[in-house]
Write a structure and sequence with these properties.
Distance between the termini: 32 Å
Number of strands: 7
Structural class: alpha/beta
Radius of gyration: 16 Å
Low-confidence stretches: none
Strand order of the largest sheet: 2-1-5-4-3-6-7
CATH superfamily of one domain: Glutaredoxin
CATH class of one domain: Alpha Beta
CATH topology of one domain: Glutaredoxin
Number of helices: 7
Length: 216
């Protein structure tokens, strides 16, 4: 797949695209093959750390990880930023979620999370009102909602964050439950069901656990 190509999002029943990326919390790399034949893995792909919705989802999944391990399922997050930028952020905001860095969006393209930009998509992001985490006093357009959450967090974007925010647009989040044989058994793609109105949402812990319970 070349850098400019996009594909439809990976769905349940398809082989999970392979990848090898630099680990965030340690030196070395992490790959999907690390889990093959050993354990199912919940793979979660996030935008860069400029995205407040993704920062919250990473924190949430770090908590859910322990319950998943108790069910025999490992968890891996891929954050679309440079390794050094991720390490800087998580030095001050530690997470229990194992992470890999993918500044070049290799995994996001392979899993179909880089939709083409269209006038309708751009208009929707500018006009549809969002409050996906329920923290805002009222729903707002995507950019205003993100800025409000950044202020709430006291988040100051780095130069890398700003550059990635511009370069990655548009980019979706996705979660994929991959079995020991490397087959996707459950997939959840941002905006796939509810459209732009669900931009920024992340599946609840119970939704994730329910998907895991369907594994044989």
């Amino acid at each position: 797949m070349t850098i400019g190509e996009s594909r439809a999002p990976v769905q349940a029943g398809e082989p999970a695209p392979e990848f090898t990326l630099r680990a965030v919390e340690r030196e070395g790399t992490v790959s999907l093959a690390d889990y093959r034949g050993r354990a199912p893995v919940l793979l979660a792909l996030f935008r860069g750390l400029y995205c407040p919705f993704c920062r919250r989802a990473i924190a949430q999944l770090g908590i859910t990880r322990e319950k998943l391990r108790g069910m025999g399922v490992e968890t891996l997050g891929v954050v679309a930023t440079k390794t050094e930028n991720a390490r800087l952020y998580f030095r001050f905001r530690p997470t229990r979620l194992p992470l890999a860095a993918d500044a070049e969006l290799v995994t996001h393209r392979a899993y179909g999370l880089r939709p083409p930009m269209t006038p309708d998509l751009l208009q929707a992001l500018e006009t549809v009102l969002l409050n996906p985490t329920g923290e805002l006093p009222e729903p707002m357009p995507e950019m205003a909602a993100a800025e409000a959450l950044d202020r709430l967090d006291g988040f100051e974007p780095t130069a890398t964050d700003r550059e990635e925010g511009e370069r990655q647009f548009p980019l979706l989040k996705g979660q994929f439950l991959v079995d020991r044989d490397g087959i996707v058994r459950w997939a959840n793609i941002e905006c796939a069901v509810e459209g732009i109105a669900s931009f920024g949402k992340f599946p609840t812990e119970e939704t994730i656990l329910a998907a895991v319970r369907t594994l044989r």
